Amino acid sequence: MATIKEIAKIVGVSSAAVSRVLNYDEGISVSDETREAIFATAEKIGYKKRVIYPKIENVALLYFTDNEDELEDVFYHGVREEIVKQAKKMNIQLSIYDRKDGMDAIPKDLTAFIAVGWLTRKEINKLYKICKKGVFIGTSPDEKLFDAVKPNMDSFVTQMVDYFVEKGHKKIGFIGGSDRNIDTGMPSMDVREWSFRQSTAYYKCLNEEYILISDKFTVDDGYRMGKELLKKESLPTALCIASDTLAVGVLQALNEGGIQVPEQIALFSINDVNIAKYLSPPLTTIHIDIPCICETALDLLRTRVLSGGRVTKLVFVNGIPVFRKSC
User: Fold this and answer.
1) Which residue, 47, 145, 186, 282, could crosslink 2 as a Cys pair with Cβ 3.0–4.6 Å?
2) Taking the CA atoms of the chain, what radius of gyration do you get in angstroms?
């Protein structure tokens, strides 16, 4: 790892001078050439300035996911692990609470919180009375009250449809799951389905026959909808699938039905779970950058705690397409 001492040796100045320049100390008297040489050398040898984070204590990680969903969608499990790891690095003291603990277990003197999963309206109101400084990850139940960081699902699906249209596909289908209101239990349209409908309508290739929606996003649901798709008289030539877990089931159903992927039906999914690259064929998918999402959430939390501010923020994090052999 590059050090200040190495930079000082290369440039020919003292370590103290290098440190003061890199810390933008306006009181130090050095020539512009020396200043530029210090920054150029630091960049060349890969010097990274050590960040000293002030300690933030008494922060809660509210992990309010359904166990069944966690097993089927590793996104939330990955978020939990990453938040714990990055919080330690950022000198944030975390205590973890899940739905089994209940809202009553949350300390009344909480400094701030990170919430992962779903909370009822009653829980949100109670949480706001306990602590007004919090960030939600993956959901944004009340954007007026709390900050939130989410994967940009709308953009993900738009990218998928754009890609298929560019490749000449006109018969594009969608397999996904429904969202649900945690208070009423009533299903609602998931943003991925909404985005698919908007995108295909724009290209004038929206076909209701090719849209299959399940209650959940599980492998079994993907398999069942894949079987249902095969019963149709006409098949799509491309499928946008809302998650890799659904895609695993869909791919199994297509393989059993003798459908060649991608020759007969191309598949494009979301998440880039570890198993995606080991499927047959390996799954083309959009990689969700969990470390970036968690870092953004913790940065928002730190700003909220240390600087305050009244305006809440909603941040969407884009993903990166990982092209394999399913399309």
Assistant:
1) 47
2) 24
| pLDDT tens digits for range 156-198 | 999 999 999 999 999 999 999 998 877 787 888 999 999 999 9
Looking up tokens 């598949």 gives 267
DSSP H or E run through 318 = none
Structure tokens at 322: 């990982």
Q: Are 281 and 324 in contact (CB under 8 A)?
A: yes
Distances (CA, A) of 136 to 102, 114, 125, 226, 233: 17, 6, 14, 33, 44
Domain residues of the chain, as ranges? 4-44, 56-151+291-318, 153-287
Q: 215-240: per-residue pLDDT in tens? A: 889 999 999 999 999 999 999 999 99
- For β-strands 187-188 and 134-137, DSSP reports them as unpaired
What pairing do the DSSP bridges indicate for beta strands 314-317 and 147-151? parallel
Q: Which helix (H) or strand (E) holds 59?
A: strand 56-64
Cα separation of the two ends of the chain: 41
Give one word for 315, left, alpha or beta, with left for phi > 0 and alpha for psi -120 to 50. Answer: beta
Distance, in Å, from the CA atom of 268 to the CA atom of 196, rounded to the nearest integer, reads 12
Q: Domain 153-287 belongs to what topology?
A: Rossmann fold (3.40.50)
- The reply to whether omega before 321 is within 30° of 0 (cis) is no
Report the predicted TM-score, pTM, of the whole model to 2 decimal places.
0.83
* CATH (one of 2.130.10.150, 1.10.10.10, 3.40.50.2300, 2.60.120.620) for 56-151+291-318: 3.40.50.2300
| Closest by Cα among 276, 225, 282 to 254 | 225
Q: Which of 53 and 283 is assigned the larger pLDDT?
A: 283
